[in-house]
Write a structure and sequence with these properties.
It is elongated, with a radius of gyration of 13 Å. Strands 2-3-1-4 form a four-stranded antiparallel beta sheet, with helices on one face. The chain has a single domain, classed as Alpha-Beta Plaits, CATH 3.30.70.1120. The longest helix has 18 residues. 38% of the residues lie in helices and 39% in strands. With 95 residues, it is an alpha+beta fold.
Length: 95
Amino acid sequence: MVVGVLRIEFHLPQAHSLKEKRGIIKRAINRIQAEFNVSAAEVGKNELWQSAEIGITIVGNQGGFVNSCLDQILTFVDKMGVGEITNQEMEIIHF
């Protein structure tokens, strides 16, 4: 079993309130989940209205497949234009 984890941090200059930020992030998470068969959630920076952190996980049986999927997700998120990606971290765990 191989588990892939992707954490993406954003700067959201277009968000002017927590409510607006949550709407932007919720739409982004819904699009990620609709396009890819993954789990995704806002995992940090919950009370900062111009910053966000999304966690995405995928499980598979081949490390190459999991890594490729996470790369595709990162490209997809970047092209969505959710905000400026300020940091990203990817980890592949083999069990």
